[in-house]
What we know:
Oligomer: single chain
CATH architecture of the largest domain: 2-Layer Sandwich
CATH topology of the largest domain: Beta-Lactamase
Shape: flat
Largest sheet: 8 strands, mixed, barrel
Distance between the termini: 93 Å
Strand content: 15-25%
Mean pLDDT: 81
Radius of gyration: 47 Å
Amino acid sequence: MVRYYSIIVPLILIFLVFGISFGHLRDSHGKYEERAILNAQNMGIMMAEETRAYFRPIDVTLLAAVDQIQLNIGKEKLDNLFLDRQLYTLERRVPGLNLLKYADASGNVLSGGNISMNVANTEYFKGLQSGANFNMAISGPLRDPDTNEWFLVCARRYVLPDGKFGGVVFATLKTDRIISQLFGSMLQISSRDILLILNSEFATLGAFFNGRESREIIGKKMAFDDFVGSKNLTSSPNVKITYTVFDQNKRFTYFNQIPKLPFYVVVGLNAEDVFSPWWKEVIFIFFIDLLLAALISFIFFSHYRSHRKKISEQEKYQNDLQYQAMHDPLTKLPNRLLLLDRINSVIQLAYQDKFKVAVFFINLDKFKTINDSLGREYGDQVLREIALRLSDIIRDPDIIGRLGSDEFLAVCQIKQNDNSNLNAQRVLECLRTPLQLGGSTQVLGGSVGISVYPEDGDNAEILLKSAELAMHCAKKSEQNNKVHYYLREMQSEAEDRMLLEKRLREAIPNNELVLYYQPQVDLRSGTLTGFEALIRWNSPVYGLLPPGRFIPIAEETDIIKAIGYWVLYTACKQIRDWHELGYEWLSVAINMSAAEFCNGETVVYIEDAIKKYNIPAFCLEVELTESLSLNDPEASIETMHKLKKLGVRLAIDDFGVGYSNLGYLKLFPADCLKIDQVFTRGLCHNPEDRAIVNTVIQLAHSLSMVALAEGAETESEARQLCALGADRVQGYWIARPVPPEDVIPMLQKARMFDPKLLMPTSERLKVLVVDDSSTMREFLVEGLADLIPVEFLCAEDANEAMSIILSHQLFAIIADNYLPGQSGVELLAQARKISPAVLRILITGTPNTQLLREAINFAGVEHFLSKPVDLDHLLDILKKAMLREVSVVI
């Protein structure tokens, strides 16, 4: 009860504190919002009044000028000189007013001396002439072409004595005067607030934002939607104050028309500045709440902790005794007694809820060796480490325990859509992880037996025994890190495997093993360079079996050594036979597993086979998988050097499909690097495979190795390999593996294929132009075709371009950056992986720093062209590149 009290009460108090604070902050937020609305409205009204006050004397002056003109027109003789002086006097009364003139009903300006001007086409004249506007007319913002300054025209109409339209009186007003007058020092606003004066067409007459008067946007038209946001806070006739987004800032915006003037006033208060004090209040209150929450938690948890200390020592002692009786003292895991009890409990639960239970019997390998050689202290360290690892990978509510010695037990619930094999693999990975013991690294491994309730037993004892039997079956396989399930068919499968192993042991004395030979051909000349020997088992019971059916079983036993020696001696004998027929140049490659190669007798047997059949050592090539460097790299490299001293050639097989250890590869004294068929078969349709093959070929050549590609099945793949610089090829396109008697016809041929098949169809350099505009493609091709000796290929999108890149050896690619579906930079980046030497040119209409950086770093672009393309510049780029190409060839 005290425990729940110590948790619930402080939580209630903490929620209460935060609730009060939240209510206060919500009310405070509303007050800041109301204050901002009021400030924006007041400032807008002040702006409107100031604007009206500014234009009132201008209107009075225009009315006075109208009176003067009408009085003068009423006289018998019009005195223009007198009238000009009167207008000039009126003009000087208003600061900033210029060119107070008048025009007749046809728009001809009558005042101003020699000034000849007609204003009949102006909007203000038309409006006053039509009689639609009897008030002061104000034009939109106009720019003086001579001074480049903005100004307004203010005008009023006058009438003749007969009441007809007589003309207009007008004056100009520089907008700079308006900005200085209205935005001088009348309002205190922040640097992120805005003030705008707009005319009836929403053109800007004056602006103040970014903390200064802005003359750059005079005349710029605004959209009505710029001032009407998504959250309307208040609404009244002709007034909207909104919480909106304007020039990427949220604002409280006042927007209204100025009475009696064709102007609008806009006041926008930045929301971040409005709520900045409120956020400081939030931070302060949140900090106080945290302190109060910490204080409340400390008080109640201290009380709970003091109560827990009152547990009697006798109860603690009894708990300790019970724990020691049910747990292993070394690893602290449940012991056999507790495990059996928990297994029975899980079985009862499984019976009720209809799920299965898997029991994993785990046995460590090499534990006895470590215990005997390094001592019991290190043995205990191993057990503790394995116990920790197993505890980490076992899920809750699964169980892990130690039975004794080097045996552990895991009990896992298998419910719907679960997979116990996944757990087994995690156990094996745990056992395979290296251990650091006494300054050395040790890899234990282990064997796992699995039994499942209810199939294999209905109580803990039976399941435990079934899992132990399965574990012993895994042990007998003579390979570490094995998993076996307890199955009724286990005995039958074991017998079948033992029968296959027994017959495999009899295969060599019964002459059932045969060697097939697959030719290896030089890509440049088409001539035969040698063969790879591939083993087959011609069993009278199973038929002709490929190596994948029986070599794994052989590698699990000592049979692999006998098979390896048989392959070695048989291949050397065959080399001798072919040499005696006059083919002294012929060589044969044999495969050798890591188990064979790391055997200390390997060099002795190879040397004996060479001497026995009296063949040149260089005619024998040993193919090794790169993975053998992971087992014992120092011993492997030492054996390689010994074979090289004999003169035997070495090849690295299956490069790239496993753990490619480049650090050891540079130390291998190999003569040949074989490209796996997995990559060869993707050359014509997969840019990534082509890039990998190209990289492996370059790596082989840089290490002074021959690059041999396996698995070439089509002429297209062979042509791609030839273009990438591969030296030799092997695959079904040349020939399938054949028995020795079918090799002689191949040896009698001058070439295995005509090398002209792999030569390019044209000796001219090829340039690919990629642009979705047919006009641009024709412009580039027709503009350069007669000026440079190259063949142009065209594509309108990235997919078509990639097809051409994969099927042609290109000299250059000219690509527009804006392509449908994929950008030019992305296309050139893929082309860079496939053909690193191709010249890459990018066309872009709007180059920017980010685009240039990506094009150079990501795609390796060498030249940039802006639209419209300068053909002379492009021609110069291609010619210089062609000169470099010719110099490289020479």
